[in-house]
Amino acid sequence: MRIASFNINGIKARLPRLLEWLEETRPDIACLQELKTSDETFPAQEIEAAGYGAVWHGQKGFNGVAILARGAQPQEVARGLDGEPEDEHSRYLEAEVNGLRVATIYLPNGNPCPGPKFDYKLRWMKRLRARAAEIWAEEVPAILAGDYNVIPYDRDVWSVGAMADDALMQPESRSAYRALTGDGWTDALAAIHPAGGVWTYWDYQAGAWQRDAGFRIDHLLLSPIAADRLVTAQVDKAYRGREKASDHAPVWVELRD
DNA sequence: ATGTCATATCCGATATGA
To answer: Is strand B within 7 Å of residue A244 (CB)?
Structure first.
């Protein structure tokens, strides 16, 4: 089975791109981020017509995440992360699909740093790690998929110097990400492409796509049972070059049944 | 390169978040 993650940067503006990607690549499960729309305006009918059941956690204007399943209805398990009741950002949704636990994650960007947004990012990462530990304790096959807004290693960015002051690359961000992989979660893209040089995001500005000035921030983290079934992990890079593309490309893993 | 894009607000601009 194939499980994909795609930061679509606005489901309203991106719906034709999303539907053609679903039709052309037929992922079994698709985790979406940055819906930028409310629960009421989520295009559930169009997605159902494409053959996908869905759960979603929307928000007006920004954030928003969803889990799509081909020919199945995901069963919601959790909405949002514990630990900060006043946090109303729609950034985390967890569901069960055919025996697989799936989380869709839109981790805070954290810029500018230092500052309150960066502090929020680090607190959010701590809360995510706590939730990941709870899932771990259930010993179920699980995948934590999404836009982590973290460049894990220097080999995951086209220019270390250009991004040195960015929240995505700060030692605190990296250390919080490595705490997750240190807990035993497998970064699937990194496992399949250990040499690096694989990007999932290219900025709209300054001709970043044309210069291949990108980096890797969309990650698929696998629990041990899921990691044992890992066949391959790839980026649907060509979708970044289409008309009216998102600034992220879809990423996916293939797991043995 | 202060470079692009999507969304919201009150209808053509500016603000926000990325």
So the answer is: yes
Cβ atoms of A122 and A107 within 8 Å: the answer is no
Q: DSSP string covering A78-142, please?
A: EES-TT-TT-----EEEEEETTEEEEEEE-----SSSSHHHHHHHHHHHHHHHHHHHHHHHT--E
> Active site includes A89?
no
| Model confidence, pTM | 0.98
* DSSP result, A132-151: HHHHHHHT--EEEEEE----
Task: State pLDDT tens for residues A225-241.
Answer: 999 999 999 999 999 99
Amino acid at A4: A
**Averaged over A69-95, what is the pLDDT?**
98
Domain boundary assignment for chain A: 2-255
A34 appears as a binding residue in the annotation: yes
A7 annotated binding-site participant: yes
CA distance A128 to A92: 9
- Residues 117-146 of A, Cβ under 7 A from nucleic strand B: 117
- Rounded distance between C-alpha atoms, residue A113 and residue A11, angstroms: 28
- pLDDT value of residue A75: 98
Q: Is 3.40.50.300 the CATH number for A2-255?
A: no
